Predict the structure.
Amino acid sequence: MEQAVVQQQFLSKVNDGESIEGLLWKDLHWQGGEWHGAEIRKCIFEHNRFIGMDWWSCHVDTVVFAGIRWSETTLRDCVFTSCRFVNCIFERTIFKAHQFVECAFDACVFTECQYLEGTLANSPMLDLNIEASRIEKLVVTGSRQVSLRFKESTFTHLVLTDFDFTYLTLENAAFTNLIALECTAKNYSFQGVQLTQSQFTDSDMSGSDFSHANLVQACFKGCGLQECRFDHADMRQALMIDANAAHAVFAGAQLECANLSGTNGERAVFRGANMTMTALNRCNLQYADFSDCSMEFTDFSYANISHADFRGGRFMRSKHHAVIDDGTRYGSKQGILPPDHELLRAEQWVKL
């Protein structure tokens, strides 16, 4: 009876538009119902359960949630600011246009959740497991003391800014259109991970392992990829322009229609890769290994391929226009288009 009275008093204040401040709510069980426009400030919730509820346009500020469980609840257009979540579980919860701003998460779990759109911004602590969930649009930025674990979950538009992958553990997670801006992932394992249409612009990913990963239409523009491994990765239509991929390994990779223009691929290994219609314009490919590659319609124009090894490679209408090829080991040049002297003269005339 006492619990019912307390809950009724709470709901009456919410319905009357009153701000709820400075109270302790302990061991309460909330079932069903809607909180519309609730203003909750400087309260403490301990060991409460919220089941089958709809929180709508609520503002929750400087509230501590300890040992709380949200089940089959919808949080839509809610903003949580400067809150602290300790040992909390969100299960089968739906987040719609939901924002956590400067909120701390300590040993918390999202399981079987749907995060349709929202933000995790400037968290002073982000110790969070996301399991068996579907994340559609989520921005994670400015967080400190990060310990993230993604397990058996799919992410269709996750944005990470200035993020260090060292503090992220992946287990059967799949990404489409992951956007990682100016992030760090040194010596990190993305082995076998689905990263379709993902963007790693201007990120330092040196030494990382992308072998067997799905990188179709992924973007590595301006990235540090020294000594990375892309063995047998699917990189069809990938964009890797102006990157540093010196000593990287692409052996057996699928690189059809990929664009590596302007990239430093010195001593990179492409052995056995499918490079049909791959663009390598203006690349530094000195001492690179292209042995046994399939290079139909591949474009090496203006690249430096000095001392590169093409032996065993298969060419078909491959362009080697204005390349630098001192000491290059071609084997057979059959299938390489003849030099276009008229184009070269025209280019030299334009430079004058």
Observations:
- The helical segments are 2-15, 341-351.
- The mean pLDDT is 92.
- The CA atoms of residues 246 and 265 lie 5 Å apart.
- The two ends are 92 Å apart (CA to CA).
